[in-house]
Amino acid sequence: MLATVIRTRVSPVDSLSPAVLAPRPHAGGSLADFDQIGTVISVRRNEALFREGDPGRFWFRVLIGALRSSRLLPDGRRHISGFTLPGDFVGLEDIYRFTAEAVSNATLMRYSRQTIDGLVEQQPGLGRCLLKLVCGDLDTAQSQMLLLGRKNAAEKLASFLLTMADRNGKADRISLPMTRCDIADYLGLTTETVSRVFSQLRSEGVITLRASSEVGLKNRSALQALAAAA
Asked: Is the N or the C terminus of the chain less surrounded, counting Cβ atoms within 10 Å?
């Protein structure tokens, strides 16, 4: 199973401006209305926001930073099911099915599930917004199953980089807050393989690397061709 992470098209924020925190009512009901009932919290790098099996008393939306949703397999290996970036919602289950940890220092909006249920009853439009986003998340889950089941290492990494570029809203540059180990556990690869493919794509002129967190898409068409090869 994949973690329940609802992705919105909210642009990443660099600071908590009044516009981010202020209530933004909408006559038809929108996700922005949740800001009226939210509380801003902070999570430090590698700190758990919640753990697998905890009761799901809260929903969360990332304002700054990133989270990873993971589960330990019976043999001790870690499986990362997804990354939560600014604008994304996470933790919608009644019982959390994954552990959510901060990839970097993160700031989030926390919402009481009980309060949200009451707000949705008052504004049915909010329920429709959530349903639409859940359906979009199912599409993401299907894409992830294809990624893990049918693609080789280079195709997986190419698909991942293109997805991250789309989520970052930048066509030619990506900021990756997660480690190579995180990426490997997400793609079902070893850390060594991920590092090797990064080096291969750089040597072939497909990407550029600036430190470990900045990736430039030098030849996006070649990356797209590689991602679509499976």
From this structure: N
User: What are the residue ranges spanned by the domains of the chain?
Assistant: 5-139, 151-227
Q: What is the CATH number of domain 151-227?
A: 1.10.10.10
**158: alpha, beta or left, given left = phi > 0 and alpha = psi -120 to 50?**
alpha
CA distances from 222 to 26, 29, 39, 158 (A): 43, 42, 44, 9
Whole-angstrom distance, CA of residue 130 vs CA of residue 46: 29
Name the CA dihedral angle for 192, 197, 202, 207, rounded to a multiple of 10 degrees.
-120
Per residue in 47-97, pLDDT (tens digit) is 999 999 999 999 899 999 999 999 988 888 899 989 999 988 888 888 999
Q: Which residues pair with 5 in a beta bridge?
A: 90
Q: How confident is the model at residue 113 (pLDDT cuts 50, 70, 90)?
A: confident
Q: State how far the Cα of 44 lies from the Cα of 22, in Å rounded to an integer.
A: 24
The two three-digit tokens of residue 29, written as one number: 């009901």
pLDDT digits (tens, 9 = 90+) for 126-182: 777 776 666 655 555 556 666 566 789 999 999 999 989 988 877 788 999 999 999
Q: CA–CA separation, 155 vs 143, rounded Å?
A: 13
H or E segment at 21? helix 18-21
